[in-house]
Amino acid sequence: MDSFHLKDLSSEFYKKDKKGKFICTLEEGQEIVVQVTKEERGTKGAALTTQIGLAGRFLVLIPNSSRSGGISRRISGDERDQIKNILDKLNIPENMSAIVRTNGLGRSVEELSLDLAYLLALWDEINNTIPNATSPSLIYRDDKLIVRVVRDYFKEDIEEILIDDKDTFNEAKEFIEAVIPDHSEKVKFYDEEIPLFNRYQIESQIELAFQREISLNSGGSIVIDPTEAMTTIDVNSARSTKGKDIEETAFRTNIEAATEVARQLRLRDVGGLVVIDFIDMTNEDNQNKVESAFRKAIFSDRARVQVSNISRFGLLEISRQRLRPSLNESYDIEHVLVRGPRSLGLSILRIVGEDAAKENTGEIHVYVPSDVASYLLNEKRYDIISIEKTNKVKVLVIADPYKSRPYYKVVRIKSSDVKNTDSYKLTPDSPEPDINWRDSNNQSKTMKPLVDGVKPPKMPKTRKSGLMKWLKSITGIEVEETKKKKRPQRKYRRKNNTQRGKSNKNFKNKPNNKVNKNNKASSTSTIRLKIQTKKIMIKEALKLKNQKNRNLKKN
Questions:
Q1: Which of 12, 129, 317, 389 has its CA at a distance of 20 to 30 angstroms from the CA of residue 174?
Q2: How far, in Å, are 47, 52, 130, 242 from residue 34 at the CA level?
Q3: Are 372 and 348 spatial neighbours (Cβ–Cβ below 8 Å)?
C-alpha cells in the first residue's frame, strides 16, 4: 500500500482539539484493522478502508460508524419510504449503522432482525479475535462459495440447485435451511453416472468465457479486449446476411450483440470503463432500439451499470461497478500461469466427456503439455477408460513437448473419418511460437482467516393454507396462494332516536329489500363457484399426479 486516503478513515480516528477542529489521531507504526474494498490488479495496489462493512442477505452492517446507514441506491420511490419505516423498527446498537440491500425489499421486520442478529454475532466474533491477532493477520474472509451464491444470487424463481459434492451439499443444505427454509427442498444431491458438468455442458460455457472472440447465432461475432484503462468490445457482422440490406443486417447483429455483451459482462465480471463499438447504423430509431435492448439485458445485473447513448461514431460507453477482479484477472491467463496440471487436466477431462457423448463420435485426440499428459494417463487413467466404455469411443492423449500450460487442444473425429494412426505419429514435429509461462500457483501461500464465521439464525417458515399444502403434497407443484384483500371499513354514523324510528318504519316499504335478496342469491352463487373452482383444482392436481407416475414408470 503506497498511500492511505483520509476519507477512508472512520470517525474513531478523529478527535476535537481545543479550537473545536477535528484532528487525525493516526500515528506511524500504529496497528489498525482495515477492510479490502478493491483487490490488487495489475500495477494498481489494493484499496483499503477502516470503515468496516459486513454483508448479510438483506443488510450490510457498519459496526464502527453511526452515520453510514441508509438504503441501497437501486431502491427508489415509495419503496424507500417503506424501508425507512422498517429500518427505524430495527434494534441497531449505538455507534453502529446498517444499509438495506436490494434483497431486503419486501422483507418483514422479523426477517431483517434475524439477518441483523447474524451480522452482530459475526462482528462480536471478529471483535473478540482482533486483540489477540498479530500484524499482519487475516481476520475474516468472505469467500465461502455457498454463502456468497445463496446470499447474492439466489432468487425465488430458481427451480433447483444441483450439487455433486457431498460435503458441499451438506453445507449448502444447512445454510439454506437456516436462511431460506421455504426453499430448502430445492437443494438436491446429484449422483448420476454422467458428470454434472457434462450433463449441462457447463465446461464448454466456462471455456467460452475465456475466449477473445464469441460467435453469434446470426453469423456475426463480438471481440473482447481488456486493457489497463478500459475494456473494448468490437461488434462484427462477419458472415451475417439475414437482413434485406446493410442497415437491417447491422441492426439485427447489433440487437443480438447487445444481449450477448450484457451476458459476457456478468460472466466475466468485467468492471470499470467499457466501450462497445457497434456496427454503424444510419437510422436513429434502430440506434434507440439497440440502446433499449442493452438496458433491458443489464437490468438483472447485480453491479451498478451506467450507460450513455450511442455516439455518432457508433460507440456506447458503459461504467460497470467492480465487485471483484474479473475472470481474466483472477486466473491471469495472459501474464502468469495459474492452472496446474491437475486443474487443467480436470477441465480437459470434462470437455472430453462432453465430446464423447455426442453422436457419431469415433475418436477424440487430446493434445496437451507433457506434465498434463502424465497426469491424465496415470492419475486419471480409469476415468478415461470409463469414458471410452460408456460412449464406445477411443481417446488418445498426445504429449506435445513444445507446449506448456495452459495450452491444450481437443479434437473430435467422426466415425467416418477415423484413421488407424499410431499415437506417437500424431506428435507435432516442430515447435511453434510459445510464451514462457511460470507456475506461481504452488508458490503462493494463502493466509487462513482467524474467524471462520458464525452460524446464521434460522428464519421462520411461511405458513400455507390447508388446500395449497395438500395440492403440493399430491403433485409436488408449488401453487401460488392469492391473498384476500381487506375491504375498507365504512364509517359508522350514529343516528338519533327520530332517525332510527323513521328508518325502522320505512324499511318494509323500501324497494332495496328486494336487492338484498338478490345479494344473498349472488353471494351463494359465488360460494358455489369457489367450491367448483376448488374441485377443478383438485381434479387437475390428480391428473398431474397420475401423469407424473406414468412418466416415472416409463423411465
A1: 129
A2: 10, 7, 11, 55
A3: yes
Closest CA relative to residue 305, chosen from 279, 273, 280: 273
**Residues with Cβ within 8 Å of residue 265, at least 6 apart in sequence:** 274, 298, 301, 305, 318, 320
Of residues 434, 395, 406, the one with CA closest to residue 343: 406
φ, ψ for residue 224, nearest 5 deg = -110, 120
Beta bridge partners of 397: 366
Q: Is 314 left (phi over 0), alpha (psi -120 to 50) or beta?
A: left
pTM, rounded to two decimals: 0.59
Pick from 276, 244, 272: nearest CA to 257: 276
* Residue (of 298, 311, 297, 409) closest to 355 by Cα position: 409
* Cis geometry, peptide bond prior to residue 488 (ω within 30 degrees of 0): no
Cell numbers for 407, please give them. 495450452
Q: What is the DSSP letter of 175?
A: H
The string of DSSP codes covering 72-122 is -TT--THHHHHHHHHHHHS-PPTT-EEEE-GGGTT--HHHHHHHHHHHHHH
CATH 3.90.380.10 fits 337-426, yes or no: no
CA atoms within 13 A on the CB side of 374: 7
Given a contact cutoff of 8 angstroms between Cβ atoms, the answer to whether 261 and 276 are in contact is: yes
* Domain 31-132 coded CATH 3.30.230: yes
> Using one digit for the tens of pLDDT, what is the confidence trace for 285-343?
999 999 999 999 998 888 889 999 999 888 999 999 887 777 777 665 444 445 688 88
Domain residue extents for the chain: 31-132, 145-199, 213-326, 337-426, 463-477+513-555
pLDDT digits (tens, 9 = 90+) for 147-188: 788 877 888 888 899 998 898 899 888 888 888 888 888 999
